[in-house]
Design a protein that fits this description.
By secondary structure, this protein is an all-alpha fold. It has one domain.
Length: 128
């Protein structure tokens, strides 16, 4: 009985496979392209936010204190996953969100230090 069920399953798979057309997809090519373009745009935007934060004078000062090379940190940011990059970009955008709100310069510097350290830690974690 098991043999006949197995033979029937294999025969159905072999002969039924021809019924599936190559153009039958769950997502159309256009929709897939749109989604990829949106993801690429979001990633570029997130990298831009981090790059702007790391380009500030406070970031240079913080990197000097930590002994970090900002060129290396910027290059490392491109290797982060989309989720990690998005989280760090949100923090970087928060640094520039409302300068009139009276953010203490020391807090701003600590946030930049956090951003640099987070990138270094995430890259080291990814390498291991």
């Amino acid at each position: 009985m098991r043999k006949s069920v197995a033979v029937l399953a294999v025969a159905t798979a072999i002969f039924g496979a021809g019924a599936v057309l190559a153009d039958d997809h769950l997502v159309s090519r256009e929709e897939a392209t749109e989604r990829l373009d949106a993801a690429t745009g979001a990633r570029e935007s997130d990298l831009g936010a981090i790059d702007r934060a790391l380009g500030s004078a406070q970031a240079r000062t913080a990197a000097d204190r930590l002994g970090a090379n900002l060129v290396t940190v910027r290059a490392a940011a491109t290797t982060l996953s989309d989720g990690e990059l998005r989280g760090l970009a949100e923090r970087a955008r928060a640094l520039d969100a409302d300068p009139a709100a009276g953010m203490d310069p020391d807090i701003r510097e600590l946030l930049i230090i956090f951003l640099i350290v987070a990138i270094v830690i995430l890259v080291l974690k990814a390498v291991d």
